[in-house]
TrEMBL record:
It comes from Ignatzschineria ureiclastica. The gene is ispG. Its EC number is 1.17.7.3. This is 4-hydroxy-3-methylbut-2-en-1-yl diphosphate synthase (flavodoxin). Keywords: 4Fe-4S, Iron, Iron-sulfur, Isoprene biosynthesis, Metal-binding, Oxidoreductase. Binds 1 [4Fe-4S] cluster. It is an enzyme of class 1 (oxidoreductase).
Length: 408
């Protein structure tokens, strides 16, 4: 089941062939960590990210060679059958690269600007304006991405001076959050003065701590109509990053805040970049906002489950679903909403199995050595012996073919 959460109304922004905003699903995106100058390596990673479910992919554009490579990257992706929108990430020299390499701007689906890194002093507005003008010239949307690790120093200094005059000064964290909001709002207003509209802008205000992220997005959401991109700016590595991102984004998404997300995990050495995409999808699926793949419900085990058979069975069924989902989604409509239960004993096993589309309840300690299978709430068959996993897979296949096959 997919729950309908009332999202804040926003403008609709088209990024290539992907719509972002409250009329569209919440999108999952990611970013490469390859050297963009290396076309083949970057294309390979974009394909891996897209295959794992990333609906947009951002690439670093930091040198002239990287800017020159972008059109070749997009062309090669198209040749290989991929139309995933590619977003250019610009810092410090984006104005110069876009002006020098117009084919780069043409090839990209969106430009990302960081107001804190666009320029200093009198050059800041000029260089910000130059990037926006290039985006307008080629009808490309922009993401104004404010980051508390690279805040506009002029905005921060101004607010620090004002804070010193307050009767009750803001804390450092409160001041940083306020500075981010001010920078974001001023940047949006300036982009509109140059010629952009709410249909051209996506906004992010990223921090690295969960509570601060919740606060800053809650504060800015009522002040803008543009879609909001969510994510901790540096979530961290492994379990820490996953939990921190899940804790923050779950709160905001449940409140209807957020139109696209990225999970900025630090990958383990030599680990695939795709983990951040899988985590993002799992957050949306766990909140029942979107469904990407059938869910396997499995119990944690207890003293009743003296055998580890149910653990191996749950693992086999999860792997079977992951392996077959790319084929299933082409031939079966709605299969991603299916729920499969693999339970380990009689306490919750039958109940969970009945609530799933398909469920199996393995015998626990002291129970009869049989495994009843439930289909749409009704007991259908009882499995025994050494081939329970293969027989259960066959039941899943038959169920999917009977219920989800696309009409010709």
């Amino acid at each position: 089941m997919v729950f309908t959460i009332k999202r804040r109304p926003t403008s609709q922004v088209m990024v290539g062939n992907v719509g972002i905003g409250s009329d569209y699903p919440i999108r999952v995106q990611s970013m490469t960590n390859t050297n963009t100058e290396d076309v083949d390596q970057t294309v390979s990673q974009i394909i891996a990210l897209a295959d794992s479910g990333s609906e947009l992919v951002r690439v670093t554009v930091n040198t002239e060679k990287a800017a020159k490579a972008v059109p070749f990257i997009v062309e090669k992706l198209s040749t290989l059958g991929y139309d995933t929108p590619i977003v250019g990430d610009f810092h410090f020299n984006g104005h110069r690269l876009l002006q020098a390499e117009p084919e780069c701007a043409k090839a990209l689906a969106k430009l990302r600007i960081n107001p804190g890194n666009v320029g200093r002093g009198a050059r800041k507005d000029e260089q910000f304006s130059a990037i926006v003008e290039e985006a307008l010239k080629y009808r490309k949307p922009v993401r104004i991405g404010v980051n508390w690790g690279s805040l506009d120093p002029e905005v921060l200094k101004r607010l620090v001076d004002e804070n010193l005059k307050r009767a009750v000064p803001l804390t450092n964290d409160e001041l940083m959050c306020e500075a981010m909001i001010v920078s974001a709002l001023e940047s949006i207003e300036f982009a509109k003065e140059i010629g952009m509209t709410d249909e051209d802008i996506i906004l992010s205000v990223k921090v690295s701590q969960s509570q601060q992220l919740i606060k800053v997005y809650r504060d800015i959401a009522p002040k803008v109509r543009v879609p909001l991109h969510l994510g901790l700016t540096e979530a961290g590595m492994g379990m820490k990053g996953i939990v921190a991102s899940s804790a923050a984004l779950a709160v905001l998404l449940q409140e209807g805040i957020g139109d696209t997300i990225r999970i900025s995990l630090t990958p383990e050495p030599n680990a695939p970049r795709t983990e951040e995409v899988l985590v993002g999808k799992e957050i949306l699926q766990s909140l029942q906002i979107r469904a990407f793949t059938p869910k396997v419900v499995a119990c944690p085990g207890c003293g009743r489950t003296s055998s580890d058979d149910f653990q191996y069975l749950a693992q086999k069924i999860q792997s079977y679903i992951d392996h077959n989902m790319p084929i299933w989604k082409q031939n079966y409509e709605g299969v991603e909403k299916m729920v499969v239960a693999v339970m380990g004993c009689i306490v919750n096993g039958p109940g969970e199995s009945k609530m799933a589309n398909i469920g199996i309840s393995l015998p626990g300690n002291g129970e009869k050595p049989v495994a009843p299978v439930y289909i749409d709430g009704e007991r259908a068959v009882t499995l025994k012996g050494e081939n329970i996993a293969e027989e259960f897979k066959q039941i899943i296949d038959e169920y999917i073919d009977g219920k989800y096959r696309k009409q010709q």
